[in-house]
Amino acid sequence: MNVKDNRRKNLRALARALGGVTQLAARVGKSQSQISHLICNRPVKNIGDRVASHIEKAFGKPPGWLDLEHQSIQEMGNIYQTNSIVRHAYYQVPVISWEQAAAWLKEPYKFTAKSFRDSMIVSLPLNPRSFAVEVLTDTMESPNGGVSFPKGSTIIVDSEIKPNNGNYVIARMKPDGEIIFKQYIVDGSYQFLKPLNLRYPIVKMNDEMKILGVVRLMLLEFK
């Protein structure tokens, strides 16, 4: 299946998940006739790059999401409880490397679907510039119990959230420099990046350092 067909198939699935063309049109800010022309049985128009990007942003999807085949792309599922409907949103994020993270944070919309190693679906509300990355070291493994991020686990990072004291963050040591994963600590007028593993040093932040994103979720696969 080519990109043109994937886009149409995925948009139709989103329409079904939301309850129809009317709901989809409202979600993406288009008229019902415009949406119908894209997803009817005999489509009048193809879904161009600009429209595809607009739809992905409206649903909190990463760039290129609409181009791919998905086993389960239902963006919203209905669970009926008595007379009310509880809606659960699902967000798909790309799995990228640490090397890609800096470029992704600067210009995520220059990435294409082929840029990603993989993607994953989570039920946590996320911004479009969110991504997943594998933890490669034991820096954030706590020897004292409590919160710990083992080597090999995957963290979901939201780059559009302002960090608060105690948040787990990724930060850049200097412009175009190394990206690290630490806990953000505020002590008076000072800011620190603290590892959970006591074998590593605490880093005092300076003007060159920058917080790039806040960790919202950690996933660990058992083999």
Can you characterise this structure?
The chain has 223 residues and is of the alpha+beta class. The chain folds into 2 domains: 1-71, 434 Repressor (Amino-terminal Domain) (Orthogonal Bundle), CATH 1.10.260; 87-223, Umud Fragment, subunit A (Ribbon). 23% of the residues lie in helices and 28% in strands. It is built from 5 helices and 11 strands, in the order ααααβββαββββββββ. The protein has helices at 3-18, 21-28, 32-39, 49-58, 98-106; strands spanning 76-81, 84-89, 91-95, 118-122, 131-134, 154-158, 168-172, 179-187, 190-194, 203-204, 210-219. It has a 7-stranded antiparallel β-sheet. A two-stranded antiparallel sheet has the order 1-2. A two-stranded antiparallel sheet has the order 3-4. α2 (21-28) packs across α3 (32-39). The chain is elongated, with a radius of gyration of 20 Å. The two termini are 32 Å apart.
Secondary structure topology:
Elements: H1 3-18, H2 21-28, H3 32-39, H4 49-58, E1 76-81, E2 84-89, E3 91-95, H5 98-106, E4 118-122, E5 131-134, E6 154-158, E7 168-172, E8 179-187, E9 190-194, E10 203-204, E11 210-219
Antiparallel strand pairs: 1-2, 3-4, 5-6, 6-11, 7-8, 7-11, 8-9, 9-10
